[in-house]
Amino acid sequence: MAKSSKYTSKQPNEQGIIEWSEEENKIWSELVARQLKCIEGKACDEYMEGLKKINLPHDRIPQLHEINAVLERETGWQVAPVPALIDFDEFFRLLANKQFPVATFIRSREEFDYLQEPDIFHEIFGHCAMLTNPAFAEFTHKYGQLGYAAEKKDRVYLARLYWFTVEFGLMQTDNGLRIYGGGILSSPGETQYVYSDTPEINKLEVLDVLRTPYRIDIMQPLYYTINSIDDLFDISQMDIMALVEKAKELGLFEPKFPPKNKLAS
Q1: Along the 265 residues of the chain, how does pLDDT read in single tens digits?
Q2: Taking the CA atoms of the chain, what radius of gyration do you get in angstroms?
């Protein structure tokens, strides 16, 4: 997380307002319109209900206080403006305090289709609707508390749990496979890819997730599913650090992707 970003987050003014340019608002508007079409019939009910609650503007980037009013009312959460990249310590500290980090920049037109680092569209469109759900919010809060207290070597294991739930989580429902992970919900390519025959989809067992390597710069070869959003609440009540110890003893699974340098050669 220490690498630098070519983007610079915008600072709110004294009134807490971020001044967005016409072009930035236009990019937001186009991203929202495209992705709403893309997730139709694919996003989980909890996400769609949350989206109604936060009532995102389609013609401009929302101000953080607008999102905060809804999150505060529903689950006691807030969003917090952060620089383009933050370290694990700050990330966990914010989540432990029920503050979801939002990088206050939006991608350029050149990176309209894919951006490796999270921008305001990813953070707000991808994650904030789910944070109106009590089970999801409690899981994220507990995760932050665990991560903030954990040693550096254990945080790597915890990062996998976040990756395969909050970012790339899927749910098996009576109506079929549904998405709740913000990394998929904010990506048109990944939304379509999940429903192809390419990725492997397994039932989520926390110990397996802690042992599964991932790469952030490719489509995921593997996803994990829960049966209901309440499964996340149940996970938040587990002794996750004991499972981290077990995962360390057992070691990691063989990656289902080539190492970076092999791809480059």
Answers
A1: 445 788 999 999 999 999 999 999 999 999 999 999 999 999 999 999 999 999 999 999 999 999 999 999 999 999 999 988 899 999 999 999 999 999 999 999 999 988 888 999 999 999 999 999 999 999 999 999 999 999 999 999 999 999 999 999 999 999 999 999 999 999 999 999 999 999 999 999 999 999 999 999 899 999 999 999 999 999 999 999 999 999 999 999 999 998 876 544 3
A2: 18
Q: Give the strand order in the sheet containing 222-226.
A: 176-179, 170-173, 222-226, 200-203
Rounded to 5 degrees, what are φ and ψ at 44? -70, 160
CA angle 243, 245, 247 (to 5 degrees): 70
- pTM here is 0.94
Helix H segments across the chain? 22-38, 45-54, 64-75, 88-96, 120-121, 134-149, 152-162, 182-185, 188-194, 206-210, 230-236, 240-250, 260-264
Helix pair 88-96, 152-162: axis angle to 10 deg: 60
- Other beta carbons within 10 angstroms of residue 97's beta carbon come to 14
Beta-sheet pairing, 78-82 with 176-179: unpaired
Degrees, nearest 5: CA angle 101-92-86: 55
